[in-house]
What we know:
The protein is mainly alpha-helical. It has helices at 2-8, 15-22, 26-34, 52-66, 71-93, 98-113, 117-127; strands at residues 13-14, 41-42, 48-50.
Amino acid sequence: MKEKELRRSQAVLPIGTVMKLTKLSARQIRYYEEQELVKPQRNEGNRRMYSLNDIDRLLEIKDYLDEGINMAGIKHIYEEKERKQAEKQAQLQKPLTDADVRRILRDEFMSIGGLSKQSLSFKHNRNF
DNA sequence: TTTCTCACA
DNA sequence: TGTGAGGA
């Protein structure tokens, strides 16, 4: 699943293509970059190159704008998103707490119990 | 031709 | 946010 992520983050689209894909003006696209809502890369000629992820981000921004959210508000949304990401990363570094261990063990038991005839038929019916 | 930066009769 | 200038 990493190959796909790499492709989506490959900056290969010039601003003209992005304009058509997002229906945004070049002015707007550049302005959003100034507001650090998107961070396109630059090629050897100082031209902005966008990735598919950037396209998604721009479309998302457009949606927020339609919902009446201003630049400041959108910035806050992404700040929140980054803050939560940082939290997840930090959580991955920590050793498991007792509560985590208990939760994992419980899930293990549930999984084993899930092999009973009753749940097998349930799974079967659910999938078809 | 397309995109860049800068600035505002 | 639009638009035009002047350059690459």
